[in-house]
Amino acid sequence: MLNEEEGILLEASWERLAGDSPQARAVGRELLTRWSEPHRRYHTLTHLWATLRAVDILAEEAVSPDLVRYAVWFHDAVYETEPGLDEDRSAGLARELLPMLGLAPERVGEVARLVLMTREHAPGPDDSDGQVLSDADLSVLAGAPDEYLAYTAAVRAEYRRVPEEAFREGRSRVLRGMLDAPQIFHTEFGRIHWEARARSNMLAELDRLAAEAASPDGPRSA
C-alpha cells in the first residue's frame, strides 16, 4: 500500500512533470482519483509509483523520458479489467486531457501510442521509449519472491469474479506466452538485472498454479 510519504512524492512527481498551473493540478487530481478507485487491487497508486521509479532507473535508455512518464500516468488510468478496451480508453483519456497542459499534438499522439503499446508489451527494436515503458511496467515480475507473491495475490483479487479454474487457465496461458518469448525485457538494464529473476518467479507461479489444479482441496494460501 502506498504510504503517506510516497503519496506526497507521487504528487510532487506529477508537478515536476506537468507543472503547477491550474490545468495541470486539475489533470493530476483526475488521474490520482482514477488510480485510487476502490475496485483496484494491483493497478493502484502503488503500481503507478513503482512504475515511475522504474522509469527513473531506465531513463538513460529513453529518447523522451518525460513522454514515457506521461504514458505511465495514463497507461492504466482507465482500468475495468477489460484487456484491450482499457488501453484504448486510457489512450483516449490521454488525448482528451494532455492538450490542457499545452502539449503539442504530436507529443500527445506519442503518449497515446505508448499507452496502447502496453496492451501487448511488444515494442519494436527501434522503439526505445516503448521499450522503457514496457520494461518499467513489467518490472514487478522481477521482484523478490515475497513481493512477487503479493503481486500475484493482488492480480487474483482484481479478477475475483472469475472462477478459479478459468483464472488458473488464463493466467497460465499468459505466463507461458511470456516465458516462450525470446526476452521479457527489452532494455539493456532489464535484460541484465531483471530477466533471470522474472523468469524464476514466473516459473514458480506456474508450478503453484499446476499444484492448485491438481489438489482436491483447491487453491492453497501462500
Automatic annotation (TrEMBL):
The lineage of its organism: Bacteria, Bacillati, Actinomycetota, Actinomycetes, Streptosporangiales. This is Metal-dependent phosphohydrolase. It comes from Nocardiopsis changdeensis. PANTHER family: HD PHOSPHOHYDROLASE FAMILY PROTEIN-RELATED, PTHR21174. InterPro entries: HD_phosphohydro (IPR009218).
